[in-house]
Amino acid sequence: MTGLIYLACLLAGIGCMLLLDWRFRLFFWADAAAATLVTLAGTSFLLLWDAAGILSGIFLRGASSIATGIVLAPELPLEEPVFLVFLVLCTMVLYTASARLLQNSKRRRTP
Fold first, then answer.
1. In this structure, are residues 82 and 7 in contact, taking their beta carbons and an 8 Å threshold?
2. Would you list the domain boundaries of the chain?
3. Rounded to an integer, what distance in angstroms lies between the CA atom of residue 58 and that of residue 46?
4. DSSP assignment letter at 111
5. Model-level pTM?
6. Is 72 within 8 Å of 62 (Cβ atoms)?
7. Are 17 and 89 in contact (CB under 8 A)?
8. Backbone angles phi, psi at 57, to 5 degrees
9. Residues 6+ apart with CB under 8 A from 16
10. pLDDT tens-digit readout, 4-62
11. Dihedral (C-alpha) 10, 15, 16, 17: value to the nearest 10 degrees?
12. Nearest 5 degrees, angle CA 46-CA 48-CA 54?
C-alpha cells in the first residue's frame, strides 16, 4: 500500500487542479480541444527532455518506498509521466488565472 502514496498524491493533485479549472473555467473548461493539445504537447516535450537526461546519465531513478516501483523504461518510473501531466496542468491553470486577473485589473483601471 505504501508503494502507491506518491502516485495517489499526484492523481489527487491533478484532481484538485481540474476542480479549480472547472470552477473558474480556466483551461480545459474554457477550450477542451486546445487544452488537450497543449497538455499532450507539453507532456511529450518534457518526456523527451527526460529521455535526453536519462540517456546522458543525468537523470537517475532513486529507490523510494512511496513509489510503485513500476518502471516504463530504464530510469523512467510510472509516476514521471503522471507528474509531467500535473506540471503542465498546474502551469496552465496558473497562467490562465493570472492572465484573467491581469485583464480584469486593466478593465477596472480604464475609465
1. yes
2. 2-101
3. 15
4. -
5. 0.91
6. no
7. yes
8. 85, 10
9. none
10. 999 999 999 999 999 999 999 999 999 999 999 999 999 999 999 999 999 999 988 87
11. 90
12. 105
Distance CA 9, CA 55 (A): 28
**In which band, very low, low, confident or very high, does the pLDDT at 107 lie, cut at 50, 70 and 90?**
confident
Does the pLDDT value for residue 101 go beyond 90?
Answer: yes
pLDDT one-digit tens code per residue, 63-82: 788 889 899 999 999 999 99
C-alpha 8: how far from chain center: 14
β-pair partners for 76:
73
3-state secondary structure of 51: helix
